[in-house]
Amino acid sequence: MERAQPGVPNSPLVRVGRAPDAGVKVGSVIADKYRVEQELGRGGFGVVMRARHLAIDQVVAIKVLTAADDDEWQEDAARFKREGQATAALRSEHVVRILDVDVLPNGSPYMVMEYLEGETLHVTIHTRGPLSVSETADHMVQVLAALAEAHAAGIVHRDLKPANVLVTQGAGGTMVAKVLDFGVSKIAAHSGIAAGAAPITRTGAVIGTVAYMAPEQMLDAKRVDARADLWSVGIMLFELLTKKTPFGKVDDPHIVTSMLTKPPMSLSALRPDLPPALEKIVLRCLEKAPQKRYATAAALASALEPFTTPRARPALDALRRAGRPSGAAAPLEKGAPAVLSAGEGDARRARRTAMLVAAVAVAVAVLFLGLAIGVLIGRSKAEPGGAPSASASASPSASMRK
Q: Global pTM?
């Protein structure tokens, strides 16, 4: 049974007072073809269910956005639709497959996904503890294969974290990592996804999960490129190897200040057995200036290759064939959001640090206040930390905020 870890928020998009009511129950038939067999997970923004396709006897997972009537419902619905479109556009073995997207009679959008048996990396870390170097590298190379395809298609994920990577059994019994939850992804206009639609993310909005969010994403989630995802991969590498995040506990509001102004904790101090070359890779991912990080998912995967096992070979081969980031994922050199850099004057650096910390701290304070109030009034059946209780096989997503 997959459980959220206490005090680990899955997303800063917290709202209070919306009761989940997806309008479907066990035994219900959706679209005259999907019979609901079991509720797998529920949160303040939606529900995930196991269902069976009646015509072909195929087990699927169905994710339904909670029906509600408030000012942000249209934004939630648009983001949910975009998630389905973005994910369906990708063909990588390391991205969850979307089979159908539609709307229930009550107006709630839903998506039908492949049903996966397995557990998220979040569960793996918190039940087994730090992983070996080879297992960590194998997982992350597969994640990078998914990112490389997304970036080439002009899609930036923007919410990579262990809870959004599910490890399941693939063909031949090999373990396969799959990236979930493209609900807050940034998508290029040329990709053809939601062409002509108004932007969903407001300028200056904090979108994603703070503890895994690149510094430039904190400033403006619209003005990021593929390298923001590679920062998140660096955070995950550190966490898989140490069971800690590099800038402090994920539920500490002071983590924002640490991420923006301080270097990460020493990886070698926490894991003296790690190769120095691996620590250098992680530190490069966590450079505060995007231009100092790896330029592409393929470049980062190439650096990790010496630490992988044969299990990662198909993903590495796919990465060698991957195109370069394009559209929304292409490097933003001109007009990119300002981030802290070593070359800035002390006074200017101090001013910009204070402004950025203050702006993001407000969003983080709202996040934790919302979580506290949500728990007090029992707004959902979620486990502590805001994630729904779900079967390890639930998922396409352990984070249901849409």
A: 0.73
**DSSP codes, 87-120:** HHT---TTBPPEEEEEE-TTS-EEEEEE---EEE
What tokens appear for 346 in the block? 């002390």
Q: Pick the catalytic residue from 138, 159, 225, 229.
A: 159
pLDDT in tens, 376-402: 434 434 333 333 333 333 343 333 333
Is 102 one of the annotated active-site residues of the chain? no
Q: Please say whether the beta carbons of 47 and 58 come within 8 A.
A: no
pLDDT tens, position by position, 156-178: 888 899 998 999 988 777 899 99
The structural domains of the chain, with segments of one domain joined by +, span 29-116, 118-370
Q: What is the DSSP string of 132-149?
A: PHHHHHHHHHHHHHHHHH
What are the b/e assignments for 38-75, b being 16+ CB within 10 Å? ebbbbbbbbbbbbbbbeeeeeebbbbbbbbbeeeebeb
Could you give the strand order of the β-sheet that contains 29-30, starting from the edge strand earlier in sequence? Answer: 29-30, 34-43, 46-53, 58-65, 109-114, 98-103
Q: In angstroms, how far apart are the furthest CA atoms of the chain?
A: 67
Residues 6-21 pLDDT 10s: 333 333 222 333 434 5
> How many CA atoms does the CB half-sphere of 402 hold within 13 Å?
27
Architecture of 29-116 per CATH?
Answer: 2-Layer Sandwich (3.30)
CA distance 123 to 127: 6
Rounded to a whole number, what is the distance in angstroms from the first to the last CA of the chain?
Answer: 22
Q: Are 290 and 336 in contact (CB under 8 A)?
A: yes
What is the separation of C-alpha 373 from the centre of its chain, rounded to a whole number of angstroms?
24
Q: What is the CATH number of domain 118-370?
A: 1.10.510.10
